[in-house]
Automatic annotation (TrEMBL):
Gene3D superfamilies in the cross-refs: 2,3-Dihydroxybiphenyl 1,2-Dioxygenase, domain 1 (3.10.180.10)
Taxon lineage: Bacteria, Bacillati, Actinomycetota, Actinomycetes, Propionibacteriales
Pfam families assigned: Glyoxalase
Coiled-coil residue spans: none
Domain VOC, chain residue ranges per copy: 2-127
Name this polypeptide is given: VOC family protein
Length: 128
């Protein structure tokens, strides 16, 4: 068994697609119209057949309070692996990304947390 798909709730799919592709560097994998919204996924260019991230609309009534509670408590909605947190932190900060946690070593991992501009905190992590 392996993870095939996971999702992050986004306030605006177009804005999310721009951020996740143009800033983070993911590539669009699937886009299927579903009424007002779309089944919209991105993948890592390093693993185009790997786990897909669904940019899921935040329309369900439970989503807004859920996302707000996570952000208020500083809890990331997702974590992405990177080879060098310090380098990725610098690259993203130069692109205007707002970080809520600068790189922090925590035992066997180094992490940083940023705002994805779509209502979520996202963690980047590097294993030692």
């Amino acid at each position: 068994m392996r993870i095939h798909l996971t999702s992050v709730f986004v306030d605006d799919q177009d804005k999310a697609l721009r951020f996740y592709t143009e800033v983070l560097g993911f590539v669009k994998k699937t886009e299927v119209p579903l009424g007002e919204d779309r089944w919209l996924t991105v993948v890592s260019p390093e693993d185009p057949d790997g786990t897909e991230l669904l940019l899921e609309p935040s329309g369900h009534p439970a989503v807004k309070p859920y996302k707000a509670a996570l952000v208020e408590d500083g809890i990331p909605a997702a974590s992405f692996a990177v080879e060098d947190v310090a380098a990725e932190f610098k690259r993203l900060r130069e692109l205007g990304v707002t970080f809520t946690q600068e790189p922090l070593e925590m035992g066997p991992v180094t992490t940083a947390v940023f705002d994805d501009t779509c209502g979520n905190l996202i963690q980047i992590a590097q294993s030692k």
